[in-house]
Amino acid sequence: MNATTTENQIAKVITSAELLEHWQGHRRLTRRVIDAFPEKELFEYSIGGMRPFAAMVQELLAIGVPGLREITGGKTEALNEHLDVKSKAELLELWDTASEDINTYWTQIPEQQFHDRIVTFGQYEGTVISSILYFIDNEIHHRGEGYVYLRSLGVEPPPFWAR
What we know:
Four Helix Bundle (Hemerythrin (Met), subunit A); two-stranded antiparallel sheet; 2 strands; about 5% strand; about 55% helix; 5 helices; single chain
């Protein structure tokens, strides 16, 4: 790159649409992990003091859409991980709605905003892109815990690469 190259002339590694599809691919896989759980174990089973997988999923629901809503609307939201969810069907319905909402809010993020500095949930400093990557990384992390739970229950989890 020479001194006259501008930021707009630099080739992108990934587009906004590709990043959204990457995230939604992870969400489709996480949905299959949720669905693979037996109902009771989804809400009650834990290993080594970790939370049940349903509680982890509620955390993911508390981060993704509210975080994007905060990014697009600029209004700080409280991080509320405790939803009153009583069944796997209800959890899956919330998951599906959130996936649709992510698509909606995503279209409201101008490309030039991805590197803007923000503070999500009133406490996490970074950029729009670093926040979104955290949302994705956090989902992958908790899904991995779900895989451990499923295997310990004798349930074969969906292939991790089938997104």
